Amino acid sequence: MAYHKSEHYDLEITEELTGKYKDIITLLGENAQREGLLKTPERMAKAMQFMTQGYHQDAVTILNSARFEEHVSEMVIVKDIELYSMCEHHLVPFYGKAHIAYIPNGYITGLSKLARVVDVFARRLQVQERLTTQILEAIKESLNPMGIAVVIEAKHLCMMMRGVQKQNSVTTTSAFDGELLNNSITRSEFLKLISADLS
Ligand SMILES: Nc1nc2c(ncn2[C@@H]2O[C@H](COP(=O)(O)OP(=O)(O)OP(=O)(O)O)[C@@H](O)[C@H]2O)c(=O)[nH]1
Ligand SMILES: [Zn+2]
């Protein structure tokens, strides 16, 4: 399945999900036949497939599709990549930003591909910790860089709308590899650069 520009949905899955969402709406005490809800099960079926399309995408293939040989050794940072994911415990969103850095080792990748890799893993049922390390592992496999850092800051709606109901807590997760794991000066430089406001 591919969902790129023209959003194609698998017909069979859409039909089956539509029936199940109709049941869910009814079980929640609503009238699935009223006008405003008539098309909702199908909309949900499509929305949920969109938000889990990452299962059908391969991050390493995406990174490799714009991998260029380049002998630079300075850290590359893409920060503030917005992300929307879904917590695997409650299937409600968590959202925030990812900051990614790597130190090339003979190869660079297209900058947009780093943002695409965030989406590939964010558009699945996730926990923030796994999302963070999956991004790192994909970059490692494609580019084998001298160092990698991934930091994600996110707010979890399951902690805001329900449950503990805390509106202001932000969860930060990080994963480091190579120079960015072992060299504290390099890691500090990365952390300083992602916290700097360039606007
Ligand atoms: N580690 C981690 N936990 C998460 C993430 N998203 C949600 N959670 C937590 O998953 C936990 C599930 O705990 P349970 O006690 O099984 O579920 P619950 O009764 O709904 O918990 P409450 O949210 O405390 O009401 C909760 O503490 C959530 O805050 C995440 O990305 N990473
Ligand atoms: Zn949750």
UniProtKB/TrEMBL annotation:
Gene3D superfamilies according to UniProt: 1.10.286.10, 3.30.1130.10
Enzyme Commission number(s): 3.5.4.16
InterPro entries referenced in this protein's UniProt entry, alphabetically: GTP-CH-I_C/QueF, GTP-CH-I_N, GTP_CycHdrlase_I, GTP_CycHdrlase_I_CS, GTP_CycHdrlase_I_dom
Family: Belongs to the GTP cyclohydrolase I family.
GTP cyclohydrolase I domain segment(s): 20-194
Quaternary structure (record): Homopolymer.
Entry keywords, A to Z: GTP-binding, Hydrolase, Metal-binding, Nucleotide-binding, One-carbon metabolism, Zinc
Pfam families (alphabetical): GTP_cyclohydroI
Pathway listed: Cofactor biosynthesis; 7,8-dihydroneopterin triphosphate biosynthesis; 7,8-dihydroneopterin triphosphate from GTP: step 1/1
Species the sequence originates in: Flavisolibacter tropicus
UniProt enzyme class: hydrolase
GO CC term (a single one): cytoplasm
GO annotation terms (biological process): one-carbon metabolic process; tetrahydrobiopterin biosynthetic process; tetrahydrofolate biosynthetic process
A GO molecular-function annotation: zinc ion binding
Residues noted as binding Zn(2+) in the record, renumbered to the chain: C87, H90, C158
Entry protein name: GTP cyclohydrolase 1
Reaction(s) catalysed by this chain's protein: GTP + H2O = 7,8-dihydroneopterin 3'-triphosphate + formate + H(+)
PANTHER family the record matches: GTP CYCLOHYDROLASE 1, GTP CYCLOHYDROLASE I
SUPFAM superfamilies per record: Tetrahydrobiopterin biosynthesis enzymes-like
